[in-house]
Amino acid sequence: MTRKLMFFFWINLIRSWKSPAIYWLFKLLKYRGNNPDVWNNIKDYNIDGFHEEICHRTKYDYLSDPFGGLLDNSPQQKNFFFRKDLTTSRDCTAWSRMWKWYLEYHDIECREIAMKNTDTGNAHAVTVAYFPDEGWELFDYRPTQLREPTIKEALENNVVGYDTFIYTELKG
To answer: What residue ranges do the domains of the chain occupy?
Structure first.
């Protein structure tokens, strides 16, 4: 099997059910109680205002999934991202998911994407959005403000330094 086919298989057939299951397990066992109600206050902001509210490193810290991502816990509820008690699981997928939910709410065509660095094997999640007559823009923790004619070209603007990568749409 080629690397791309194996990556596609993992993302679409295993991760698509595993990640939501782990989220709900963590929500039941570790992060009980209500999530804060932040989404309803910020969902109508423009892109720049929304970015300010979910800003990586200045407002919200990166918190990796347990065991180096083995227990991938991608948010299934919008307000989970804003929990103050998180000790894990606010990683690249959390930001990509927030951007996906925001863009979908504003009826902007978008795709959540899983990227795999072919040099190192590391993986990363981002969202791309299509703006008619302008092209695809990458939302990689933040909007890149660069519009490209194809998704692949938009992904080349990634902030994690992946020069060579494969990608597929992220499910779950």
So the answer is: 3-169
